[in-house]
Design brief:
about 300 residues, alpha/beta, Cobalt-precorrin-4 Transmethylase, domain 1, Rossmann fold, 3 domains, 5-stranded parallel beta sheet, 4-stranded parallel beta sheet, 13 strands, flat, binds iron/sulfur cluster, 4-hydroxy-3-methylbut-2-enyl diphosphate reductase activity, isoprene biosynthesis, 4Fe-4S, metal-binding
Length: about 300
């Protein structure tokens, strides 16, 4: 393959690990440094390669906590259902370490407060998010049966319920989806909105969108099971040709044919070492050609 022009590679601001994920990984590694039996309940973060790296250090990913008789169980960044959390805490042989992100906790506490607040007694709590995402399943568990999940505008249009609405969000939703659902519901209901989208998500989305507008190709790095990475890929694909990959071996040389610029970004659960591997692979591909890496700060 011949590249006729200089291939510029630009890296988005705010790519990779967010505060909540870094905290969860630090807690996990610190615990493994002190204790022998360390488990995470489900993957501690949504990145299969990072989870594998932790497994190599002896940290086991659990599906069924009942199988554990003793040791430490680390609870993932995006939370677990409140009754399961309570049950684990009751087992005195198990040390429960809650690695749920403070922003997720804030969303859980908002729902818990609204579900018990006497003034909100007759109100339904709308959770804007993905029905099958672990964070949303956990959020709903704090709502004492008052939560309804709405994923998109279509569902908002179909929604029929009684009383006023309190609306909260999964932390990794896009403001566009959140706001468009609010707009639809506001036409028929009295609503109060609690914006629980986290800033790390917003920062990554804005930076990815800005970069995608300025390049011929975007590569979004992160777990296919990561909600925030998938949304970055969606946002970028609305602006330019986009590939969502987990590892460097997915990169194809033909992607770079007839293009001048490539943008890179990564979800909040993507570790630096994977981003570096992908940069290296692009450099290898680009080594045969004229390649220049620049930072997003240089993008006009
Ligand atoms: S994306 Fe936001 S809510 Fe999720 S772990 Fe990171 S900081 Fe916390």
């Amino acid at each position: 393959m011949e590249l006729k022009t200089k291939l510029r590679v630009k890296i988005a601001e705010n790519a990779g690990f967010c505060f909540g994920v870094r905290r969860a990984i630090d807690l996990t590694e610190k615990t493994a440094g002190k204790e022998r039996k360390v488990y995470t309940l489900g993957p501690v973060i949504h990145n299969p390669q990072e989870v594998k790296r932790l497994e190599k250090k002896g940290i086991k990913t659990l599906k069924d906590p009942k199988k554990v008789k003793s040791g430490s169980i680390i609870l993932r960044t995006h939370g677990i259902p409140c009754n399961l959390h309570k049950k684990l805490e009751e087992n005195k042989n198990i040390n429960v370490i809650d690695a749920a992100c403070p922003f997720v906790k804030r969303a859980q506490n908002t729902i818990k407060r609204l579900s018990t607040d006497i003034k909100s007694k007759d109100k339904t709590i709308i959770v804007v998010g993905e029905k099958i995402h672990p964070e949303v399943i956990a959020l709903v568990s704090y709502g004492s049966g008052k939560c309804i999940i709405v994923e998109n505008i279509k569902e908002a249009q179909k929604f029929r319920g009684r009383g006023d609405l309190n609306i909260v969000s999964q932390t990794t939703q896009t403001p566009e989806n959140f706001n468009s659902i609010i707009k639809v519901l506001k036409k028929r209901y009295k609503t109060k909105v609690y914006n629980t989208i986290c800033k790390a998500t917003l920062d990554r989305q804005k930076a990815a969108e800005k970069l995608a507008k300025n390049v011929d190709l975007m590569i979004v790095i992160g777990g296919k099971n990561s909600g925030n990475t998938t949304r970055l890929a969606q946002i970028c694909s609305e602006k330019t040709k986009t590939y969502h990959i987990e590892t460097a071996c997915s990169i194809k040389e033909k992607w770079f044919k007839n293009i001048n610029s490539v943008g890179l970004t990564a979800g909040a659960s993507t570790p630096d070492w994977i981003i570096k591997e992908i940069e290296m692979r692009i450099k290898e591909v680009g080594a045969k050609h004229y390649l220049e890496f620049i930072s997003a700060a240089d993008i006009k």
